[in-house]
Amino acid sequence: MEIGEIIAYNLKKLREEQNLSQGQLAERAGVSKVIISQIEKGDSNPTINTIWKLTSALSLPYTSLLEMEEPRAVYVKKKERSEISEGKYHIYNYYPKNAERNFEVYQIEMDAGCDHTSVGHCANSFEYLVLTDGKITISLNEKDYILEKDDALYFDASQPHRYKNEEASSAKMTMVIQYL
Q1: Are 175 and 127 in contact (CB under 8 A)?
Q2: Distance separating alpha carbons of residues 152 and 174, to the nearest angstrom
Q3: Predicted local confidence at residue 129, as pLDDT
Q4: CA distances (Å), 57 to each of 10, 24, 69, 89, 106, in order?
Q5: How many domains does the chain have?
Q6: Could you tell me if residue 72 is inside a domain?
Q7: Does residue 50 sit in the same domain as residue 89?
Q8: What's the pLDDT score for residue 116?
């Protein structure tokens, strides 16, 4: 990747992470909005002085616009996850919500006979489930959804919902909660 492309990508990403418009950044940095727009499109190679102004306005080091982020791999072992357990309902949070992502990823294990009710999550949240083992019933809005192995369901998670494993064996599912 060319240096102009790297600067364009980084400037847009860093500006958006700080929830700044191009105009707001231009005002902070003392440069024109047109220059910022041209840089972000890759139509302009900024001067060293402009890079200093932009990184100072973003309260970041000078090199933050010049270096590409190294690809990351995050390896998570289940045994390193803390288990939250409520009787026969066991939950492992693999990826908590943070500044980089607006979702969480969980593994849920339900022992035989498990019956768990969730009061619901915050407004504008959605739950995505994939049953990887067993059979469960999810009750939502007075309707039951029976999921068998490899079935999936998503729904508005802000409302109360219930998970039941009425089988003689355990069930396991992957859950993603998205926050909009």
Answers
A1: yes
A2: 9
A3: 97
A4: 14, 10, 20, 48, 38
A5: 2
A6: no
A7: no
A8: 94
